[in-house]
Design a protein that fits this description.
Number of domains: 2
CATH superfamily of the largest domain: Na+/H+ antiporter like domain
Distance between the termini: 76 Å
Structural class: mainly alpha
CATH architecture of the largest domain: Up-down Bundle
Radius of gyration: 26 Å
Number of strands: 4
CATH class of the largest domain: Mainly Alpha
Oligomer: single chain
Strand order of the largest sheet: 1-4
Number of helices: 17
Largest sheet: 2 strands, parallel
Helix content: over 70%
Mean pLDDT: 84
Low-confidence stretches: 1-11
């Protein structure tokens, strides 16, 4: 498919161009933590599969289904539910902060620039749902799982990149992160709208009142974790008992944080809190959720069922085919109609590789699978197996596509990170600064002088060696 042709009568915008330096630094720091968390997530998923498919499998089920918590507060939950409803609230809190930051200071703050990743993300959710629906309409399966393959797991995707050793240019990494942020937003809306049980209006009113107090304390610049953490726990408990999925409380609190910097601030409160909470989310909450959700029985029958049953086949095809086609197609169409010109250093196959990588739907897909087929344990386990297999196929496909361009990516990354004047700022961001060229001229002159001095010393040594004793 040829690249979209820029309109000759209108100035074109650069798509996947160079990021501003502060944005690049933020993306680098955020993805570094997510990468470590992704590796832990991968290890937790493998541990869950091994634990559930060995003679110790009964102990896995016993631990996963063990109940604890104050029953009087409606919180006598299994370990699996504590992980899904409790720990994932931390994950969605971070997602809320990320979304708020993207809206006020990141890629989504400019409606024109935001149009392309938002359209790509929407198409990347609509296409998997359509693939699932078509598969189950033809095969006579259940339509309840249409939302399962719509999610992208950024941590798992980054873990794949870490394992295969592919260094993506910052523009591609930022595009992947923005896709995941928008994806998380719509996944949150899907959970809130389609998976809300009978409402307890008293508990819901209490949760909303708690959120109002949370917002007021932030506006009054009240500080102290000992104020916000207990309040957050109360809000979470009320939201859980309201019938709305408890993770919505985390999102709502994340969106309330201020993510713009004021004079004299190095980081906004939102960025500061995200920096503190992200390691807890990526390093503890999400891996523990994976540990108690990914332990499904893997055998010949379960693998066969994934490709023969309409529900599971729809999930796998949605992740592998729907995500790649949806994101790539949405991106290409959006670029065509918004007259966005692709960065000359990249090509459309790079976009397709990222779209394939986004087919790794793990954390939120597993969560939605549990919600969609709640009460049907066998089908829930089959859907989880389909999520795992679909994500694995998407990861392998993306690995092959990315490896084909790995030398190009490494060269682009080396150019982005080059800092010959050693001032802590990549040279690519200083090339228009006259002082930078003066510094570089002085550096080159110093290196040339050192080279001449070494040459003279080497010549003098040869003369001494040739002279008679």
């Amino acid at each position: 498919m040829p690249a979209p042709a820029p309109a000759p009568t209108s100035a074109t915008r650069k798509f996947l161009g160079r990021l501003p330096l502060p944005e690049r630094q933020y993306i680098t720091d955020a993805l570094r933590t997510e990468t470590v968390g992704g590796v832990l997530l991968l290890l937790a998923a493998v541990a869950a599969l091994v634990w559930a498919n060995t003679p110790l499998g009964d102990s896995y089920t016993a631990v996963r289904d063990f109940h604890m918590g104050p029953a009087v507060l409606g919180l006598d939950l299994s370990v699996q539910h504590w992980a899904a409803d409790g720990l994932l609230a931390i994950f969605f809190f971070v997602a809320g902060v990320e979304l708020k930051r993207e809206l006020v200071a990141g890629e989504l703050r400019d409606p024109k620039a935001a149009a392309l990743p938002v359209i790509a993300a929407l198409c990347g959710m609509a296409a998997p749902a359509l693939v699932y629906a078509l598969t189950n309409a033809v095969g006579g399966g259940s339509m309840d799982g249409w939302a399962v393959p719509t999610a992208t797991d950024i941590a798992f995707a980054l873990a794949v990149l870490a394992v295969i050793g592919t260094s993506l240019p910052s523009a591609l990494r930022a595009f992947l992160l923005t896709l995941a942020v928008v994806d998380d937003l719509f996944a949150i809306l899907i959970i809130a709208v389609f998976f809300t049980s009978d409402l307890n209006f008293a508990a819901l009113g209490g949760a909303i009142a708690g959120l109002a107090v949370f917002w007021l304390l932030l506006r009054k610049n009240v500080h102290g974790w000992y104020v916000y953490v207990p309040l957050a726990l109360v809000i979470w408990g009320l939201m859980y008992n309201s019938g709305v999925h408890a993770t919505i409380a985390g999102v709502a609190m994340g969106l309330m944080l201020r993510c713009t910097r004021r004079d004299g601030e190095r980081h906004s409160p939102g960025e500061h809190i995200e920096h503190l909470v992200r390691p807890l989310s990526a390093g503890l909450a999400v891996p523990l959720f994976a540990l108690f959700s990914a332990g499904v029985a893997v055998n010949g029958k379960s693998l066969t069922d994934v490709f023969t049953q309409p529900v599971t086949l729809g999930v796998a095809l949605g992740l592998v085919v729907g995500k790649a086609v949806g994101i790539f197609g949405g991106t290409w169409l959006a670029a065509r109609f918004t007259r966005a010109e692709l960065n000359s250093d990249l090509a459309w196959p790079d976009v397709f590789a990222i779209a394939s990588l986004a087919g790794i739907g793990f954390t939120v897909s597993l969560l939605i699978g549990e919600l969609a087929f709640e009460g049907d344990a066998p089908l829930t386990e089959e859907v989880k197996a389909a999520v795992l297999i679909g994500s694995l196929i998407a990861a392998v496909l993306a690995t092959v596509l990315l490896k084909l361009r790995v030398r190009k990516y490494q060269a682009l990354m080396a150019d982005e990170e080059r800092d010959e004047d050693e001032d802590g700022i990549p040279d690519i961001y200083e090339e228009d600064d006259p002082e930078y060229h003066l510094r570089m001229a002085a550096i080159y002159e110093k290196k040339a002088a050192e080279h001449r001095e070494r040459a003279e010393l080497a010549g003098a040594s040869r003369d001494d060696a040739d002279s008679p004793a």
